[in-house]
């Protein structure tokens, strides 16, 4: 979840809004302090002449910068009500154009929020600030990083309320497009779908690679939204780094795009230089793995076309084929078939410190899947998977320790196929196994205690010679043997 954008978009009612609504609801009273009465007159839109006479009658010229409610001054009320005449009267009477309420909002902040460019111009002519990122000698410092107000920048107020012309005016007159907040820079707080605000900031020099509190760049955040195709184009055109990595989990924009499932964004990134392959580390899967997890065949094919290594191996999860077989993913059969067709090794051995740390793909599949599918087993065999009923300590391809996971009542055909395909049996281990049921042992003994037929032995030897890969079915079909024998060799019968 994009917490920075979520928090940045939230804004409670301002003090001036709250006070004006309360005043309009309760009506005017004559038993208040003069400043309070004067504020109420401004709220009720009394004329400039009336306001001037009231100030003179009550002798308030020396009190125009005094707080009324939650730090609000008369100038705040005049600006909020868009009373330019009253605002000029107050400014000409030495009202401070940079006065802040208790939350740090100045009259310029209110104008930015409301889109009152005409009032901002007047306030600036009287010395009002529009940028608070620089700390002057007489300023009080707020926040981290420090700024001259506890409130957001006027530019942020304009952008948040989609006052783009006001934002442009502020940027033209010195607003800092790279203002820093606790959650990140100005551009980090913009929703990627708010293209107008993003383009405006970039046009005036915003850093396209700025990182937010979570270590994400604007491009990463855009890639997490499937509708943000235009934002992705825009950010890249302004120099966004397509290979920048998130600080916490080291994902790139391509990782996020694959997780989002938008092929167009994935293509844009790759065509602009995004890397599809990375050195595999323990907790840093490549984008290809996320395409597998999402069950997205189109993106998977595209990444493989773009150079992703189908046989890259992680010591934690194994190869992409391991992942496809061990996770509950959509389109599992299509994903497995795609990987095998594109050259995935059905006999991949994952090693750590020179020893196997994972079973071969078919072994991990049987270990993790309660109800293995016959069509997936056949796909693996068709592309050269070898079946060895031994322990992995004796043979890298050994899967004997997981055979007990096959439910003979629900998946008898899977057990039958694997027994038929096995190259060898470790009879002593079968005898000693505490995991294998008597029914499992009976099936294994029946096959293990009789010699292979000449046909079976020939199939085993031929498959060893052919190896593995998408070329296996093609090679078998060029041998000139009868179709029935082709199907026999490929376990298609």
From TrEMBL:
A GO cellular-component term linked to this record: other organism cell membrane
Cellular compartment(s): Secreted; Target cell membrane
ANK repeat ranges, renumbered to this chain: 70-102, 103-135, 214-247, 249-281, 283-315, 319-351
Pfam families named among the record's database cross-references: Ank_2, SOCS_box
Annotated SOCS box domain residues: 450-490
Keywords: ANK repeat, Exocytosis, Membrane, Neurotoxin, Presynaptic neurotoxin, Repeat, Secreted, Target cell membrane, Target membrane, Toxin
GO MF annotation list: toxin activity
Main localization (coarse): secreted
Gene Ontology BP terms: exocytosis
PANTHER family documented for this protein: ANK_REP_REGION DOMAIN-CONTAINING PROTEIN (PTHR24126:SF14), ANKYRIN REPEAT, PH AND SEC7 DOMAIN CONTAINING PROTEIN SECG-RELATED (PTHR24126)
Name of this chain's protein: Ankyrin repeat protein
Organism this protein belongs to: Caerostris darwini
Organism phylogeny: Eukaryota, Metazoa, Ecdysozoa, Arthropoda, Chelicerata
């Amino acid at each position: 979840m994009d917490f920075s954008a979520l928090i940045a978009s939230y804004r409670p009612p301002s003090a001036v809004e709250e006070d004006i609504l309360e005043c309009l609801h309760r009506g005017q009273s004559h038993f208040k302090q003069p400043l309070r009465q004067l504020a109420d007159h401004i709220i009720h839109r009394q004329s400039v002449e009336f306001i001037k006479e009231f100030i003179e009658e009550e002798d308030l010229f020396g009190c125009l910068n005094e707080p009324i409610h939650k730090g609000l001054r008369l100038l705040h009320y005049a600006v909020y009500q868009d009373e330019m005449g009253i605002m000029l009267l107050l400014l000409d009477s030495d009202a401070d154009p940079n006065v802040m309420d208790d939350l740090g909002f100045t009259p310029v902040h209110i104008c930015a929020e409301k889109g009152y460019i005409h009032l901002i111009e007047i306030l600036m002519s009287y010395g009002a600030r529009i940028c608070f990122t620089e700390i002057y000698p007489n300023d009080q410092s707020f926040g981290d990083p420090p700024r001259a107000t506890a409130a957001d920048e006027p530019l942020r107020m304009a952008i948040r309320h989609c006052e783009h012309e006001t934002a442009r005016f502020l940027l033209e007159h010195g607003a800092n497009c790279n203002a820093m907040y606790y959650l990140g820079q100005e551009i980090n707080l913009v929703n990627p779908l708010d293209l107008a605000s993003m383009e405006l900031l970039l046009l005036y020099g915003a850093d396209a690679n700025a990182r937010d509190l979570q270590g994400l760049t604007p491009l990463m955040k855009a890639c997490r939204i499937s509708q943000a195709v235009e934002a992705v184009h825009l950010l890249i055109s302004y120099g966004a780094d397509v290979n920048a990595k998130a600080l916490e989990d080291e994902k790139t924009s391509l990782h996020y795009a694959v997780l989002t499932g938008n092929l167009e964004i994935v293509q844009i990134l790759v065509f602009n230089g995004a890397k599809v392959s990375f050195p595999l580390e323990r907790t840093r899967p490549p984008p290809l793995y996320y395409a597998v997890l999402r069950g997205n065949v189109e993106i998977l094919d595209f990444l493989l076309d773009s150079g992703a290594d189908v046989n890259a191996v992680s010591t934690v999860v194994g190869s992409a084929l391991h992942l496809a077989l061990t996770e509950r993913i959509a389109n599992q059969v299509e994903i497995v078939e795609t990987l095998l067709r594109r050259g995935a090794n059905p006999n991949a051995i994952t090693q750590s410190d020179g020893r196997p740390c994972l079973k071969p793909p078919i072994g991990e599949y049987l270990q993790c899947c309660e109800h293995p599918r016959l069509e997936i087993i056949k796909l693996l065999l068709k592309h050269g998977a070898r079946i060895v009923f031994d322990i992995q300590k004796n043979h890298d391809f050994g899967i004997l320790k997981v055979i007990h996971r096959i439910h003979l009542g629900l998946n008898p055909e899977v057990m039958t196929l694997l027994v038929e395909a096995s190259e060898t049996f470790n009879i002593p281990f079968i005898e000693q196994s505490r995991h294998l049921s008597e029914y499992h042992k009976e099936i294994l003994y029946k096959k293990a205690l009789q010699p292979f037929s000449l046909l079976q032995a020939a199939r085993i030897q031929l498959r060893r010679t052919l190896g593995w890969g998408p070329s296996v079915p093609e090679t078998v079909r060029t041998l000139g043997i009868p179709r029935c024998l082709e199907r026999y060799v490929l376990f298609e019968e």
